[in-house]
Amino acid sequence: MIRYALFDTEIGWTGMAWADQGLVGMYLPEANPEAARRGLLRQFPEAVEAGVPETLGPMVAGVRALMRGEKADLSDAPLDIARAPEFNAKVYAIARAIPPGETLTYGEIATMLGDRLLARDVGTALGQNPWPIVVPCHRVTAAGGKLGGFSARGGAQTKLKLLTIEGAAAAGQADLFG
Predict the structure, then answer these.
(1) Among this protein's residues, is 137 annotated catalytic?
(2) How many CA atoms lie within 13 Å of 29's alpha carbon, on the beta-carbon side?
(3) Domains contained in the chain, number
(4) Phi, psi angle pair for 170, to nearest 5°
């Protein structure tokens, strides 16, 4: 069974979905709870609303802190990673290790995986990331200080906003058209 909860942050209402094995998805902030609920239920139509379980309380507090511009470590948030393809899971593990305020490029992650030519595959995996913010795909940029793609609602502007909140140097020099 998949359950979900909504919670407010400094920049809007966020949703999360979980199963017994951990988080199965996150939904980026919306202006109001109804919009966040609709968006989350599009991803998980079978989900049932519930209260935030005690095990996910620290993750909710961390997301709220990040949205206030504070540095927060979400690397301990339990993910149901078995739902992700093996390659994607490797990319997500590397992305989760990027501290708030810092970035890596798609090429750097590809090199860490053993082949710089996998940069496009890294981008594809991050585009399929069901846990934005918790798996901080916004901290992965294109080469040369360009933002690169961001498939979440709001695209590159949302990515830039998240990087700015975290105080990433890339936010100050980002080229939106990369």
Answers:
(1) yes
(2) 19
(3) 2
(4) -60, -30
pTM for the whole thing? 0.84
pLDDT in tens, 19-65: 999 999 999 888 999 999 999 999 999 999 999 999 999 999 999 99
CA atoms within 13 A on the CB side of 66: 28
Q: From CA 44, how far away is CA 40, in angstroms rounded? A: 6
Instruction: Give how far the C-alpha of residue 56 lies from the chain's centroid of Cα atoms, to the nearest Å.
Output: 16
**Catalytically annotated residue among 98, 133, 137, 156:** 137
The single residue listed with the structure tokens 């239920």 is 41
- Please, which residues have CB within 8 angstroms of residue 142's CB and are 6 or more apart in sequence? 105, 106, 148, 149, 178
Spell out the residues 6+ positions from residue 27 whose beta carbon is closer than 8 angstroms to its own. 14, 15, 16, 17, 36, 39, 40, 43, 132
How many residues make up the chain in this entry? 178
Domain ends where: 17, 38, 67?
Answer: 67
Specify whether 97 is located in the same domain as 61.
no
CA distances for 90 relative to 24, 60, 152, angstroms: 16, 24, 20
**CATH (domain of 36):** 3.30.160
